[in-house]
Amino acid sequence: MAETPTTSPQAGGDFQSEAARVWAAMPRKAVFLALLGAWVALFHWQGNSTLGYVRTPSLFLWMENAWRSNADDQHGYFIPLVVLALLWWRRDELLALPKRPWWPALALVKLMISLHAAGFVLQQARVSVVAFFAGLWAITGLMWGAAWLRATFFPFVMFAFCVPMANVGDAATFPLRLLATKITVALSHVFLGLDVTQSGTAIVDPAGRFHYEVAAACSGIRSLTAIAAIAAVYGFVRFRRPWKRAVLILSAVPIAVAANVLRLLCIIIAADAFGQKAGNAVHTSPWLSLLPYVPAMAGVFALGRWLREDGADGTGGAGASGRPAEPAPADSAAPVPAGRLALLAVSVLVLIGLTSAFLHRQRTNQKLAAPGVKLVAAPVRGEGGQIIATNTVALPERVLDYTSAPVPVPAVVHTMLPKDTVFAHRVYTARDGFKVDSQVVLMGADRTSLHQPQYCLTGSGWQIDSSDTTSVAMTLPRAYNLPVMRLRLSGRFRDERGVPVARGGVFVYWFVADGAVTADHRERMWSGALQQLRTGLVQRWAYVICFASCAPGAEEATFARLKDFIAASVPEFQLAAGPPLN
After folding, report:
1. What would the DSSP string read from start to end of 491-535?
2. For the whole model, what pTM was predicted?
3. 464-472: long-range contacts at Cβ-Cβ below 8 A with a sequence spacing of 24 or more?
C-alpha cells in the first residue's frame, strides 16, 4: 500500500487552521503577492491580440471563452483546482524545503515574457497561455529557490491541460483517428466477419446501409486529453521517479486508441445489426460514450501496478526515501538583505512594465488590413438552405467555357471557424464534363480561420502522393508567376453502384493578402508578424483552393487544365499580384 502524506507534529486540525499554519511558514509572501499581482495584470490587460472569437484584451477571458465554447476543452476549468490540490497534498514536503531567493529564475521569467510577446504579435494566444503558467512557476522559484522549482515541476506541468486545443488539436490527433479507423475495420473483418471498408476516417458499409465518420472527438483530443490528465495525476500521486510518471502519461496514446476502437466496434455492430439510426444512437448516447473509459482507466491502473513492482515508490507526501519530510534548515527562511530582495522584485516589475508598454503600443496601432480579394454583398447559405453570411468573395459565375453553381457551407465548417470568416465556394463544369472545385476562405480579425488542407484531404479518403511548390503564369493585371502548392492525390472510392473505383486528383492552393501572395504557411505567418511589427496592421489572408478529380495517370493533363482555369479566373476576384516579370 502507498504511504499517506506525512505531516509534521504541528499539522492537523481543521482546514482553516492548517491553511493558517502553511501560510505562516511561507517566507517573503508580500513580495511574492506583489509579483503575482503584476504578472496577472499583464496577462489580463495585455494578454490577447486575437479579436475574432472574443473581443477582449484579457488572456483569461479568451481562455474561458475557449473552454466554454467547446466540450473538448471544458476540463480546463478544473485543472487549476487539481494543481492546487496536489500542492496541498504535498504541503509538508514543500514546507520542509530550503527557501531562499534564486536569481537564475529571473532568466526564466525573462524567457516567458519574451514568449508572451511573441505570441501576442503572432496572434498565438495559446503560446501566451503557456508563457503565463510557466512564468508563474518561475516566479515561485524566484522567491523560494531551485529546490522549490524541482519539487513543483510536476504539479505545475499539469497546467498544460489548460491550453485550449480543440480547434488546433486535429493536427496532432488526426493520425490517431486514422489508426483507430484502420484497426476497427481490420477487427471487423477478422473477428466479426463484417464487410466494411475504410475511406479516410470514415467506415462505410458497401451496401450503403450505414456510413460513420470517425470525428475528432471520437478518437482525438477529448479521449486523449482525459486519459493523459488522469494518468498524470495518478503518476504524480503514486510515483516519485520521473521516468515512471512519463511512462504513465505516454501510455495515454495507445490506451486512448484502444478504448476508442472498442467504442467504434460497438457503433459498427449496432449499425450492421439494426441500421444507421441504431449506430447513431450508440454514438450519441452519453452513457455509452463513457464505456471506453472503463477499460482505459483499468489499463492505466494496471500499468501503474506493474511499474510499482517493489512498492518503493508510493511515498505520498513523504521524502524521497519514504521517511517523513525533514524540517527545513534553520536558515532557509532567514531574512534576506532588503536591498537584494528589492532589486530582485524591481527587476521583475520593470520587465513587466516595459513589456506592458510595448504590447499596449502594438494593440493601439493594431488595425485590420484590407483583404487581397474582392468582396461582394451576396447571401451565403448553409447546408440547410439558411443564410449564414451576407458577404462573400466575388468568384465569377462563368470562367472560359465553364458554368458554375454555388456550394453550401457545411455546418462543421462555419460553426467551428470565427464568426467573421468569409466563405466562397463554387463548382465549375466545362462543356466536356470536367469539373473544378474552387473555394476561398478569408480570415477576419483572427488568423485561425486558415488551416492546412492535408488533414481534410486524408480524412475524406484521399492519399497525398506528392506535394511541391510551383507557379502558374498570369497575364492580368500584369505578367507574373502566381506561386501555388500542388498536391497529387489518389484514392479508391465507390461509384453509384457500390463498385470500388480508383481515382486521382490535383489539389492546388495558395494564400493572398493585400500586396502579398505566397504558397507557404511559414512565409505567411512570418509576413504577418513583420507587417504587424512595422505598421500595426493585421494582414487579412485568404486561402484559395482549386481542385479537380481525374483518372489515375491523368494528373499532369489535369494540372494543365487547372492552370488555364486559374489564369482566367483569378484576375476576377484576386486583387494582389506577384512581382512583375521582366
Report:
1. EEEE-TTS-EEEEEEEEEEEEEETTEEES-HHHHHHHHHHHHHHH
2. 0.77
3. 464/488, 464/489, 465/489, 465/490, 469/519, 469/520, 472/563, 472/566, 472/567
